[in-house]
Amino acid sequence: MRIVLLGAPGAGKGTQCKRIIDRYGLVHLSSGDILRREKAAGTELGGKAESYMNSGALVPDELIVQMMTEAISKVPPAGFVLDGFPRTVNQAGQLDKSLALIGQRIDVVLNLKVEDSVVAKRITGRRSCPQCGAIYHIENLKPRTDGICDNDGTALIQRPDDSLEVVANRMANYHRQTEPVVNYYKMNSSAGALYDVDADKDADRVSAVVFEKLDAVAKS
Ligand code: AP5
After folding, report:
1. Are 4 and 82 in contact (CB under 8 A)?
2. Given 79, 96, 114, 165, which is the most exposed site by the fewest CB atoms within 10 A?
3. 33 CA distance to ligand 1 middle (Å)
4. Strand pairing class (2-7; 80-83)
5. pLDDT of the residue at 25
6. Average pLDDT of 149-156?
């Protein structure tokens, strides 16, 4: 199964992706996580992406498309879930073209919908594990011990782009550059069936709806 997860910053894409890959045995490809790994490793790509990410701007399409096409080419046949990509209409078109070249297409696009007012609280309260990538929230999804990852005991961190000012920029860019991608999938039915998911519920209830949709796609 090849899945795209769309949604605003803080909509819960990363949280749901981790549950999806556990249930369906897919590869999780998060453009944000890949960029953060490149930054941490001090690569040329990481260096180029850093200032865009820190200010809440999108990294230029040409860098992202190349990075994600390469990542997709290494995925085993069971499939993948894309998190944070595509994020512009141009990226969506490029993704479709590169999949068509290898005889593939996106099967399903899940659009996690959440009000802007919910997002800031989710993002500023997010804590993540730099070791295994697990995502927590200081109120909604707490680790067993404050500040410590349940999986590996690593100290949790806050992302540098999770400050209120940067979040405002990320949201503005989401509305301007990424929301049109929803329309792209609405208009191009051959590019993958689009489902809206109400993501303004607790994470388990969101997962239940997501799994129901994906179970139906997996059976079809
Ligand atoms: P990226 O890492 O993709 O960030 P994002 O899209 O802004 O999304 P987030 O990771 O902030 O949120 P999420 O939806 O995954 O929410 P999460 O599950 O963590 O991108 C970072 C930057 O990289 C971009 O700004 C850009 O510069 C660059 N970039 C990346 N991809 C790019 C691309 N394709 N093109 C160009 N540039 C690109 O949840 C958030 C919090 O809420 C957590 O604390 C979680 O515990 C909590 N939570 C989750 N679900 C729920 C729920 N249902 N109820 C209550 N709390 C919840």
Report:
1. yes
2. 165
3. 10
4. parallel
5. 96
6. 97
